[in-house]
Specification:
alpha/beta; 3 helices; seven-stranded mixed β-barrel; 144 residues
Length: 144
Amino acid sequence: MRVINIKRSDLDFVRGKGEGSYPNECCGFLVGRADEEGVKRVSRVLPVDNAREEEAQRNRFLIRPEDFIATEKTARADGLDIIGFYHSHPDAEAQPSAFDLEHAWPWYSYLIVSVRDRKAGRAASWVLDHDRSGFMEEDINIED
């Protein structure tokens, strides 16, 4: 079973970012640790600017390589890792798109929040299969 643990305040933060960036996609990092069984625990949620061209931000996000490197360095300095990414799906379901499938990396969690009319709805987390054929949904354990 795949599980990601996240504080309610961090999930609310992601939902707020999705509402605030509507009708465009928001994006950012999930920083934390994974235990020996592969259960992930989010310690920090770090937003990043959507670097996709303005006209494409409605249904695409892009994280710059330099943002990834800087976040990875900061996380490692604190004994943590990038364990995933979050983004919103404006006026769409909280499930990976074909574009998400083409650009995802195995192991990482992909937390997606659906936002309709500037109101966050369902949030779901996904992990790409090792053979890159599709995603498996992982359970979200919300901690207070």
